[in-house]
């Protein structure tokens, strides 16, 4: 058989027989068969020598070369190159693993792309327990990609044989940086490499890898960096931190550097899966490649199911047999409740919104309704506010003409401006006449819908995300006027209560106004609401059709609907699995602890991938239904927000500040401190 690819492997004192055999067998099992494996024993002694001999017998295409004394990896690879026969040279380490498709994919790439002299790939990071992280490298690295670290993962690379005619530099010159020096030298010669954007190689890395790195090797790497940068055409004071980086790493304790490394490259979903060890071992679908599915099983579903289990426990303890999950935040909770609700507890989904409730409330308490409708928002102006208060565009324009606004109608309102709006609106006869008409119709429609759904005929509770309890306050006043039972409220969290609310009727799972200041400071309500949103738009009213009151919802973005449906499927499947297990071991305290660990990792310390992926989701306020990115990448810094606050200027804050900071390459800690100070002031 013709040899097209020579796989070169230098071996010195293999870690174990099993690891060595795994590496060799990953080559033997390749789909591409026209290869040879050249194993170079670099002076191994003891039982490791016997393991190498046994591994060489696994396939007749394996050739074993021995060096009399240990000379280092560059010498071993040069010996392998000298005995190679293939047109391509593929690297492989004796403690790694590779995908069966690796050689085929890299061979085909070089065959069809003659401009590239070599090709690598992205890698999985493995240890004794399996895959723990991933390293993604750029497709076509440029010279500046060498500053931080090598943009190629050396053992994953396949070269054209002619590229390695000069071979590797001697160990005494480059230490353990033979790969770094080689790639910079080739780039300086005008050659170009590529990286397949597939994870075709398993690179073994654990804490022991850092224990073996001595300071003399760091000095050699610093010298290699300095010379390589000069050869690539960029040097000077700006490169000094990158030149000295190996020295800083060598002086860092191995355990600390390992933690930093793991934090950087650790697969996020795998991190979440380890956290989820606090719940029964369910099917977390590690085989699923879809990101939303993986995060649903690893993060979103455990959090939501933990909350729903707490709700069921509290409802049973308080003798409540009917639960109403409020739209839109209660959609995912209702999906989970279909499987987790005990016998005798009815779970229903109630279409309503703060807008429908506040409009109806204006019929019986205009002052409170206007105060709630005019609450400060992220991007609210007088014009956008009137668009929600009055349905007719003609009425909105007429009202703007008659209102004696001390500021521009399209100007973003500060907190002080928003506080002035109720009095300004009540002083406008035209607005009050239009609002009373709207409120009367909204009250009649809401009353019909609530009675139709059986609300208030017996003891019940509402379930919602929470935050300030204004929805329940409005519902209390409305139910009292309609002669209905007042509800209890179960919430994911409550940061504070609206004035006039009865604290005994509000029950929070994750934090309350009086407890868990730390949780309130890093928790992101907008992110939670966006993740849990329903596959329908905001409820804006009710219409009677065929004798029944039918909720009217705004049209929802197609991407948001697709997200919600996919998430609903995952939450339902997870809750179904959870319901089939013994749930007695899942105490409320255990679920809360799990929730804290999961959400803190996502909300307070998001990765770049999480910030970009989730930050691009559209966030809609349930009152104004404003549409914008959850974590926009153009928000002001904390210092700028402080200056605007001092000047009483409108704040263009991000709904998810830490996500915006990470998207912009900033540290999230300043934003977390700012949020903590805001919570302390409350």
Q: What does the secondary structure layout of this molecule look like, with pairings?
A:
Elements: E1 5-11, H1 17-28, E2 35-42, H2 47-56, E3 62-67, H3 73-82, E4 88-91, E5 97-98, H4 102-112, E6 118-127, E7 130-135, E8 158-160, H5 171-174, H6 178-188, E9 193-204, H7 207-211, H8 215-232, H9 240-251, H10 254-265, H11 268-275, H12 291-317, E10 322-326, H13 331-340, E11 346-350, H14 354-361, H15 366-373, H16 382-389, H17 393-402, H18 415-426, H19 429-452, E12 461-467, H20 470-482, E13 488-494, E14 506-508, H21 517-522, H22 525-532, E15 539-545, E16 548-553, H23 558-579, H24 588-604, H25 608-615, E17 618-619, E18 628-629, H26 638-646, H27 657-663, H28 669-681
Radius of gyration: 32 Å
Oligomer: single chain
Mean pLDDT: 82
Helix content: 40-55%
CATH architectural name of the domain at 5-206: Alpha-Beta Complex
How would you summarize this macromolecular structure in one to three sentences?
This protein has 682 residues and is α/β, with parallel strands linked by helices.
